[in-house]
Amino acid sequence: MYALLILDMQVGLFHGPDKPWAGEALLNTLNSLLSKARKAGAPVFLARHVGPPGSPIEPGSPFTQLVQELLLQGDDVVFEKSRPNAFAMTDLADRLKACGSQGVVIAGMKTQYCVDSTCRAARDLGFDAVLIADGHTCTDTPALKAENIVAHHNATLAGPFCRVVHAENWHF
């Protein structure tokens, strides 16, 4: 069984001053994945990145709240993380093992930070990591456009770190 893991789809990142590339398409993709996961009885996990007290993303900050556009349900597991890797200093690996997941389907934000480090860590921890090619995004940087960052990570992570699959081709 595979679990769905959606990273950092937070108000501060998604609705902040720097808009993510292809944001509306990402929301549609994530909601489709949520629907597929539920129909298959797959567990759903959503991570929220928080910072230290006094920071704009301190625990409880409105910036760390998940975007309302995601179609969440009461049995979805929402947890906080403080590192880019969603497994670091969290009980995510234990929770995945407890629900019988051999693999984790990864999507969300931001491509070059949390998505990248979580894909790499999942494989190191013995999970079959699947990155949804059209299920992650970021914002432009001074060096690269977001579209190029996403394409680069899809190419770089595919193989040694995870399988890269388009959402329409993934079935839980």
From TrEMBL:
GO terms for molecular function: hydrolase activity. Signal peptide: none annotated. Residues 3-139 form the Isochorismatase-like domain. It comes from the Bacteria. Transmembrane segments: none annotated. InterPro entries: Isochorismatase-like_dom, Isochorismatase-like_hydrls, Isochorismatase-like_sf. Keywords: Hydrolase. This is Isochorismatase family protein.
